Amino acid sequence: MADILHNLQIIQNRIDLACAKANRSREEVRLLLATKTVTADRILTAMQAGYTLIAENKVQEVKEKFDALKDFSHISHFIGHLQTNKIKDLLKCNVSCIQSLDRLDLAEKLQSRLEKENKDIDVFIQVNTSEEESKFGIHPDQAEDLVRRVAELDRINIKGLMTIGLFSADLDKVRLCYQLLNRLRKEIQVPGVELKELSMGMSGDLEIAIEEGATIVRVGTAIFGQRIYPDSYYWNEG
Ligand SMILES: *Cc1c(COP(=O)(O)O)cnc(C)c1O
């Protein structure tokens, strides 16, 4: 497990440097551990070192690790494509924020489930800034309308925007995605909604995301090592 602690230190340094370079306060940027395929004992190693913001992509995995992690104080987000028939299971696992809300029917079903359980939840609106077919997220042109409609659902608190950047070695193109998300945050004006959070940036491009305004970077591989399947596998639930 020494590898995990070592890797976390490297990521910390990268975030520190990126904040300094972008003239941003270090407190503005949170590190979220993307823990898909990572076993609970490895996640616990990171938690015990003080890294307590984690997120999964699949409801099944959230459920599988829930018992092993529940006694350790942490914050659990969801960052995968969410099917409406899995909402109930997800809510059982004390997930405090769904970062991947990308369509109205999902929001409406979430609202009605939350009403039944007398709960509420934080969400980010996921925007498809790269316009790749394989990725989820609302089209940028429709993001404001979705924010407006979701804002009417009283159990759902919109905290910000999330995106998965273009999967490309061309970092200038990746940057355009993050700039677009930041621009949307400023442009979208809906009464009662403050889009404070921008969740963007992963292992390979977190510096760019921080330069463009990220408040949460989501890091998996650079901390826990390579996964066996390509990311598209985890982004297509079902
Ligand atoms: C896996 C995943 C990440 C982390 O990606 P890495 O390249 O492993 O850092 C971030 N966001 C989402 C939505 C993911 O599925």
Write the layout of secondary structure elements.
Elements lengths: L1 H20 L8 E5 L5 H9 L4 E4 L2 H11 L5 E4 L8 H6 L4 E5 L2 H14 L3 E6 L16 H9 L4 E7 L8 H17 L9 E3 L6 H6 L4 E4 L1 H4 L6 H5 L3
Parallel strand pairs: 1-2, 1-8, 2-3, 3-4, 4-5, 5-6, 6-7
The structure holds pyridoxal-5'-phosphate.
The number of helical runs is 10
Which strand order does the major sheet show? 7-6-5-4-3-2-1-8
What's the Cα radius of gyration?
17 Å
Return the structural class. alpha/beta
Query: In sequence order, what are the helices and strands, one letter per element?
Result: HEHEHEHEHEHEHEHEHH
CATH superfamily: Alanine racemase
Shape: globular
Bound molecules: pyridoxal-5'-phosphate
CATH topology: TIM Barrel
Q: How many strand elements?
A: 8
CATH architecture descriptor text: Alpha-Beta Barrel
Average pLDDT taken over every residue: 95
Percent of residues in β-strands: 15-25%
* CATH class categorisation: Alpha Beta
- Main beta sheet: 8 strands, parallel
What low-confidence regions span 5 or more consecutive residues with pLDDT below 50?
Answer: none
Number of domains: 1
> In percent, how helical is the residue content?
40-55%
Report the span from N to C terminus: 32 Å
Task: Report on the architecture of this protein.
This protein is an alpha/beta fold. It has one domain (2-225): Alanine racemase (TIM Barrel). It has 10 helices and 8 strands. The protein has an 8-stranded parallel sheet with strand order 7-6-5-4-3-2-1-8. The longest helix has 20 residues, at 2-21. The protein is globular and about 45 Å long. The two termini are 32 Å apart. The mean pLDDT is 95.
